[in-house]
Amino acid sequence: MHGTTTSRRRALGELIRQARTAAGLTQHGLARLLDCGQAKINKMETGAVGVKRADLDLLVGILRVDRDLAEQMKELLQANERGARWDGHRAAVPRWFRAFTDLEPTARDIFAWHGERIPGLLQSELYMLEQFTMAGARDVKLLLRNRLERKKVLDQENPPQYHFILSEAAFRRMIGGLPLAVALDQVQYLLALDLTHPHLHLHALPFAADVLYVPNDYTIMTFANTTKDCVFLEYLEGGDDMNSADEVERFVRNWDGLREASLTEQDTRGYLTGLERELVERRSTGSR
Questions:
Q1: Sign of CA dihedral 159, 160, 163, 168
Q2: Which residues form a coiled coil (predicted)?
Q3: Does the domain spanning 90-285 belong to CATH 3.30.870?
């Protein structure tokens, strides 16, 4: 069965939610029939926790799920029982970020906003090494391996359509805070990605853009299957994901506004080319 552990768990949860609503039950009503708390039903439906086989058998009976749908549910459960383990080098992936990396390869479209940094998927290897070293990481090789493994999603068959908006601050802070060679390598890497990956769409948001303020970094994921669309919001020590329709729509509207104020893909290429010339000139004159 296709998909990842997280996408299958959320797909199963969505099927359970649909079956519950079709049966005319609330989460509280189903919880009473299962002799459990409403919170457990909510966690199963949102994919926050896995569904136990015994619980699924009870749900199929209580909700009078037809044979085909019951079989689909059981296939999802069986696939997840063989699910990916977060050990070895993958154990270095922060827990809050595991759902993100698990869902990413299965998304149809990904819309990301980043205000102060180059996001991991777009980082050159030299930039990664400098970033991990400056942060005082204990095992740079392990972190680098995870980051490079994640980047394989860009070259998979039928990859997501990526739409990135990066603030001009992300580029200017890089140029001011990193060695010149690293900044130049990163800009050239972005230009190469843009040239070789047609499913990657880059937009720069200049300082002069007509926006009052910008939010924290976030990523919207949409799916063609039964997985619910979701938003990952990042902050200093971690992140949260949200998948209610109202929450997703609020972030979609915000992203659309930022996109309208940003440079086009063609103008962004011109902006990056100008940055490359600036950095090459600085290197030739020996200035920062």
A1: negative
A2: none
A3: yes
